[in-house]
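thread: overnight batch results

M.L. [08:02]
morning all. the overnight job finished for the chain we discussed friday. pasting input first so we're all looking at the same thing
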Amino acid sequence: MSKVLIIEKNKAINATICADFDDLYKKCKFKKADNFIKIYEFTNALENQKYCLYGRLVGKSSTINEYRFRGFDKTIYGACAVILTNLDNKIVDIIQDEWIKYNGSKIVLDIEQEIGNIIISQEKNKDLQGKLVDLEQEEEEEEEEEEKDDFKLNYGSELSEDMYIYSSDDE
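M.L. [08:03]
and the structure it wrote out:
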């Protein structure tokens, strides 16, 4: 009997004990073992361990697992299981905090990279004085200036409209 982690589709992580790994799909709340396979293997070289991910890669769109895994971007359907083994493929009890630390460090780096990309895109929108510039507002101001310039060019020409004052009195 070994401790495994069950990751629900809503990102909840539960630790449970599994006696028979042939019935691991039952721990993930599946009725049948159809399409329940070893999906991926995360190698932790520092600890000389491997995290094995078991689950389904086919299913209904309403059962998509929203949990983000380190270095893995395929869609998993329903709950999945994470098992810890040593390099000799002997199953070891998994500790939830260690898994979160191992898997979470990559997610934090991904978020920092996304924030860095946002900052870089904001840097591109700065003017020479270093102030943020709203590109849409600048485009609107340029259009207004063009309209004023067009009015100045057309005023007084043969094709410009004359302003007439109409009165109802006959004089």
